[in-house]
Amino acid sequence: MNGQDVLLERMEKPDGVRWCVRLGKRTLMFDDESAARAFAAQLHMRLKGDKLSLVPGIAAEPDP
């Protein structure tokens, strides 16, 4: 694991389960698993530099 890896962890707390999204030293805690997974996925895609598009091939440059 390097400093740019997104890590999702389940943490048992006395008041319930928390989901932890980590990137290096930075951490965000979520009560909801689906919110944590969505955030981690978006962060991962942004760090990889991938463009998200609903239409395949829309990010490609047009041919001259």
Please give a structural write-up:
The protein has 1 helix and 3 strands. The protein is flat and about 45 Å long. It is of the alpha+beta class and 64 residues long. Helices cover 25% and strands 33% of the residues. A 3-stranded antiparallel β-sheet has the order 1-2-3, covered by helices on one side. The N and C termini lie far apart (42 Å).
Chain-wise SSE layout:
Blueprint: E1 6-13, E2 16-23, E3 26-30, H1 33-48
Antiparallel strand pairs: 1-2, 2-3
In short:
By secondary structure, the chain is of the alpha+beta class.
Number of strands: 3
Outline, from the CA principal axes?
Answer: flat
Gyration radius over CA: 16 Å
SS-derived structural category: alpha+beta
Contiguous runs where pLDDT drops below 50 for at least 5 residues: none
What is the CA–CA distance across the termini? Answer: 42 Å
Helix fraction, binned, reads 25-40%
Q: How are the strands ordered across the major sheet?
A: 1-2-3
Query: What is the helix tally?
Result: 1
Rounded average pLDDT = 82
Query: What about the largest sheet?
Result: 3 strands, antiparallel
Element-by-element helix/strand order: EEEH
Strand content: 25-35%
List descriptors:
64 residues, alpha+beta, three-stranded antiparallel sheet, 1 helix, 33% strand
